[in-house]
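Re: Re: ligand-bound prediction request (bumping)

Still looking for help on this. To restate: I need the protein modeled with zinc ion bound, output as structure tokens. Inputs repeated here so nobody has to scroll up.
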Amino acid sequence: MLIPTPPPFPTALLALGDFAFIDVETTGMKPLTDRVTEIAVIRFSAHREPERWQSLINPGVAIPAEIQALTGITNAMVRNAPSFFEVRGELRRLLEGAVFVAHNARFDYGFIKNEFRRQGEAFTADVLCTVRLSRKLYPDADGHGLDAVISRHRLSGFDRHRAMGDTEATTAFVCHAQHDHSPDTLHAAVKSLLKTPSLPANLAINALADIPDSPGVYLFYGINDLPLYIGKAKHLRERIRAHFSNDHMTPNDIRLSQEMRRIEWLPTAGEFSALLLEAQMVKERMPLHNVKLRRREKVGFFQLLETEGNALLQWLSAANLPDAHTDIFGPFSDKASAKKWLMLAAREHQLCDHLLGFSKPRATNEPCFARQVGRCFGACDGSETVAAHSDRLREAIAANALPAWPFTGPAVYEEFDPANDRADALEFDQWCAMSGGTRLPFDVDVYRLLRRTMGKTASRFRAISD
Ligand SMILES: [Zn+2]
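Reply:
Sorry for the wait, this slipped through. Here it is.
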């Protein structure tokens, strides 16, 4: 078959770095369980000739008949081919430091990442999907699949459904896009899809390269060993880079970016473990820029206390939350917002200002202000009994009661991250995290995550006493 000569690669793009176009053929559609049978790479660099590499791969499993028919890659063809283990060094050299480019890149990236993972090695790269590039450059086109792209640009001569053929077709698409778009447009389109972060000035040039695509906690450091900022993420790589991508920089990010010298990260098995680790580390290390922490310190509850038949709500900071959670309402982000909530409930249910403690009577049976304007049933001037008022107060605020802990004693939540083969078992009691058998102080983020997760996947929690 005639292999078409690729047109020159757009110089405007090489200003963004090297580009490694890749395509894989596989035994099926699932990156976690199916295997790679062929890989092709074409790498473009600013000052070198394009480099081409391809290899059949022995997947170690049989290729299903329908896949053999689609790709033309048979069991016989891969029998004497090298395994992924044998080509991994060469492949890593070809992909290292380059943008990983593929048509429907999630597929190819997922397979390559998992093949490396099976060898106990991590692989991460900046990924450019040419389906998304096609959508961006040709928003009105009918389709963006490889066949549609080939026919739209009148490209031909590719050995379709083989790795090198599809890699060449993808490359040809990007090269031909130069005919329709200026270098600036092409550069801007690729840059926006890559969300290239502007690296903080004092950070090593490759500081963002090895961040894993895993949940976890990250720490930003300045000139000494005190962290400037500690954060958690469901996807470390994406989250950390988002701090420095121009579209999302907050004033805090800009300050951080000027001060930071070094990044550290600690992968976890999931969101829960990341959140707990973050909460602990923030308390221990006291980073300068964790504004959210200061807000969390004001979180608290109302506790309903009865004295002589009168129910009174008393403010309770989260740190002072008692073990038994009865007659506790909230959590509220701070005392002022708790009071505002109570005033609204009082107005709606025509409760008494004096009995709620909003005002003090100067004489016995003096009507409260709400009574004077007809918004109080009159517990203040004796028109309503204190007991009846208390009952109505309980009713008015019932919806905000802190729910009873649904287990007898502590419960465990198991987290597992199959992509990184990491597991964690987390213990909770009375809406609080536990560490080494001891209950940690109430943390509103842990509480919210517990409520949310129990609502969706209650079955993943299991009482320890069972
Ligand atoms: Zn009143």
